[in-house]
Amino acid sequence: MSLRICILETDVLRPELVDQYQGYGRMFQRLFAQQPLAAQFEVFNVVQGDYPAAGERYDAYLVTGSKADSFGSDPWIQTLKTFLLERYENGDKLLGICFGHQLLALLLGGRAERASQGWGVGIHRYEVKQRPQWMSPALEELTLLISHQDQVTALPEKATLLASSEFCPVAAYCIEDQVLCFQGHPEFVHDYSRALLDIRQKCIGEPVYSRAVESLAHQHQGATVAEWMMRFVAQGKDAESA
């Protein structure tokens, strides 16, 4: 069984980063290639108005990170929200990372806004609050690369909190077996995170920048999160195909 995943890319990388990293869709493809469940991916850049053809079916839809605010009024964000609400009401599985994590929370009745804590950057550690069966291998703590100044501040009504920290109380959540979201970036690699830090050094301030650069000496568990995401999508598929 090979899963079919639609990646909804919600950003265009800065010109100086495109040659090396291509885009968030490509980063996710590289990440998922490292984990044990077979999957095929198609990438659509929704900022540029690119969407799957009508009637095309996928096992899940993944919404990437973005420089944009999830609560922004950009026309492409409104179009994406309409598309995602249709997918949700159709019973499709939805995955969200950073911007996607916040946008899906907003769309489904929660709240996302500029965080009073300021920028979250570098490697961050979270306490795992719940461990459903698909969260295998199981972890008590989770470390991820992060880059955000917005946060989910209220969960949708049916959501279950999966991971949390003092800095980021809503770091991961799921809604039953249909929605799974993470504030951190499992697809990031250390070099890309450092490049973003260098670009934003003045914006985030020297103390925050220095601590974030120091944190990059540690490893993160993006590959484990990728496996969780695919196990979340795969649950129930074997029964359907039997």
TrEMBL record:
Domain of life: Bacteria
Ranges of residues in domain Glutamine amidotransferase: 83-191
InterPro entries reported in the protein's UniProt record: ChyE-like, Class_I_gatase-like, GATASE
GO cellular component terms attached to this protein's record: cytosol
A molecular function GO annotation: transferase activity
UniProt cross-references to Pfam families, sorted A to Z: GATase (PF00117)
Protein name: Amidotransferase
Annotated organism of origin: Aquipseudomonas alcaligenes (strain ATCC 14909 / DSM 50342 / CCUG 1425 / JCM 20561 / NBRC 14159 / NCIMB 9945 / NCTC 10367 / 1577)
Lineage: Bacteria, Pseudomonadati, Pseudomonadota, Gammaproteobacteria, Pseudomonadales
